[in-house]
């Protein structure tokens, strides 16, 4: 891990929180292993969560029909994005690994972190029509989610009231991280730390510390490569790929399931 650069995008309001402890553990362990670690503490930064025309300095191309994606692409090319965005883009460009540390809100990231994703991962900088998914701009970088839940693990199972956590994670891990090309490492999930004894929370943090010893050497989660889809036919899976998996018990991934049973732990463990 020597000389690797790590960016931790952190979203919690309290320095006394479990999320803060998880973030601090990551900084401590990865720094000790020779990494350069930078933290974007979104609440402390008062990071703007809304994607608006104010994210562009100077005039926009079409003020009457403002299109955020197109306008920020032009602004990025012209160096006219606001300083808070360009600073985060610079951190991201430098990073080998990005860790998103947060408490799960309503089955996704907190609004301030979604705002970071909306505003920092701009068209042109983070993705283009040609460069996305397995051929994405950040294909040489790794990213992962590290988060706490309010519900216990059993509630996020295939038989649990919240539903399968693998399904919950698909929009974030496939639709944002993998979409931008990141190699997505398995998530670090801290199940309901507020509902367990302090000793159990300590064990959770020790598990995280242990995992970080080899984190950058981990294999990423499996996603179906872009070239398995036919761009001229609405990006449908190519017939030969479909046929190859026709007799298999499980679908390819959580999202591309081919009408079959979902592959177990597809969004939670590598190598499955």
TrEMBL record:
SUPFAM superfamilies: Flavoproteins. Its EC number is 1.10.5.1. It holds the Pfam family Flavodoxin_2. InterPro entries: Flavodoxin_fold, Flavoprotein-like_sf, NAD(P)H_dehydrogenase_qn. It is an enzyme of class 1 (oxidoreductase). Keywords: Cytoplasm, FAD, Flavoprotein, Metal-binding, Oxidoreductase, Phosphoprotein, Zinc. Residues 4-193 form the Flavodoxin-like fold domain. One of its GO terms (cellular component) is cytosol. Its cofactor is FAD; Zn(2+). Its main location: cytoplasm. It catalyses: 1-(beta-D-ribofuranosyl)-1,4-dihydronicotinamide + a quinone + H(+) = beta-nicotinamide D-riboside + a quinol. It is found in: Cytoplasm. One of its GO terms (molecular function) is NAD(P)H dehydrogenase (quinone) activity. Homodimer. The enzyme apparently serves as a quinone reductase in connection with conjugation reactions of hydroquinones involved in detoxification pathways as well as in biosynthetic processes such as the vitamin K-dependent gamma-carboxylation of glutamate residues in prothrombin synthesis. Belongs to the NAD(P)H dehydrogenase (quinone) family. This is Ribosyldihydronicotinamide dehydrogenase [quinone]. It comes from Gymnodraco acuticeps (Antarctic dragonfish).
């Amino acid at each position: 891990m020597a000389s690797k650069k790590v960016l931790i995008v952190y979203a919690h309001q309290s320095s006394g929180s479990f999320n803060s402890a998880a973030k601090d553990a990551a900084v401590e362990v990865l720094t000790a292993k020779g990494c350069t670690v930078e933290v974007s503490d979104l609440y402390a930064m008062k990071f703007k969560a809304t994607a608006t025309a104010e994210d562009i300095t100077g005039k926009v191309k079409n003020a009457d029909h403002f299109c955020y994606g197109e306008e920020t692409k032009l602004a990025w090319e012209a160096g006219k994005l606001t300083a808070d965005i360009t600073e985060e883009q610079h951190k991201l460009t430098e990073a080998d690994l990005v860790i998103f540390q947060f408490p799960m809100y309503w089955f996704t990231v907190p609004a301030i972190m979604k705002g970071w994703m909306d505003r920092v991962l701009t068209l042109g900088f983070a993705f283009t029509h040609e460069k996305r998914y397995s051929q994405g701009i950040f294909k040489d970088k790794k990213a992962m989610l590290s988060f706490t839940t309010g519900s216990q693990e059993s509630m996020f199972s295939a038989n649990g009231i919240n539903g399968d956590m693998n399904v919950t994670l698909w929009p974030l891990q496939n639709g944002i991280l993998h979409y931008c090309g990141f190699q997505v490492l398995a998530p670090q999930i801290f199940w309901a730390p507020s509902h367990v004894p302090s000793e159990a929370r300590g064990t959770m943090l020790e598990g995280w510390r242990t995992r970080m010893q080899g984190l950058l050497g981990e294999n990423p989660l499996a996603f179906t490569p872009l070239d398995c889809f036919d761009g001229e036919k609405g990006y449908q899976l190519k017939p030969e790929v479909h046929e190859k998996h026709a007799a298999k018990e499980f679908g390819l991934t959580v999202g591309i399931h081919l009408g079959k049973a979902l592959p177990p732990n597809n969004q939670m463990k590598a190598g499955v």
